[in-house]
Amino acid sequence: MKKVIFSLLAVMALGFFTSNAQAQTSPALKVGVFDYDVIVGHLPEYKDVQKKIEEFEKDSLGPEEMLSNINIIVQTVLIKQILHLKNPKQSWI
Predict the structure, then answer these.
(1) What is the pLDDT of residues 16-68, one digit of tens each?
(2) Quick one: pLDDT band at residue 84, thresholds 50, 70, 90?
(3) What is the domain partition of the chain in residue ranges?
(4) Is 61 helix (H, G, I), strand (E, B) or coil?
(5) Which ranges in 1-93 belong to alpha helices (H)?
(6) Cα gap 14→79, rounded to integer Å
(7) Would you say the C-alpha torsion 39, 40, 42, 45 has a positive or negative sign?
């Protein structure tokens, strides 16, 4: 019985030392980080999209122009409502 227990302990010890040896020689955990902006910047379509965005921004109204247009529309609607209150028989639309 002592031989069986000794044999089992020897096999377990051998397995333990073997697994430690493999763990020490395995490569270390490597973590990679990348920047999406760099990757997208190297795509050939990126320049075309940038040109289209710049053209769109040139053709678009700026915030001041949009606010000015909204104010004009609001003033026009208010004037039409006032005129409609003075003369309800006429359509103000």
Answers:
(1) 666 545 445 666 777 888 888 888 888 888 888 889 988 888 877 777 888 88
(2) confident
(3) 37-61
(4) coil
(5) 2-25, 36-41, 44-59, 63-86
(6) 96
(7) positive
